[in-house]
Design brief:
The chain has one domain. 55% of the residues lie in helices and 0% in strands. It is built from three helices and no strands. The termini are far apart. The relative contact order is 0.07.
């Protein structure tokens, strides 16, 4: 059944999207607005920082040896 037919016969069950727009009008689920993107990638950014710190410590140990 095509989308047009489903709408015509009342079989369309998807809810319409009502733009959250709380922080950015272009905001969508898993979107690219800076606020949502930073929230979504927070865990990965923390891991990256921790890895970089470990590499710095390792390089300092190598230089001292």
């Amino acid at each position: 059944m095509s989308l047009d037919k489903a709408i015509e016969y009342g079989k369309e069950k998807r809810r319409p999207y009502y733009r959250a727009g709380r922080y950015d009008l272009t905001c969508r689920p898993n979107g690219g607005c800076p606020y949502c993107e930073n929230n979504r990638k927070h865990k990965h950014k923390k891991k990256d920082c921790a890895c970089k710190d470990q590499l710095k410590e390792y390089s300092k140990e190598e230089e001292s040896n």
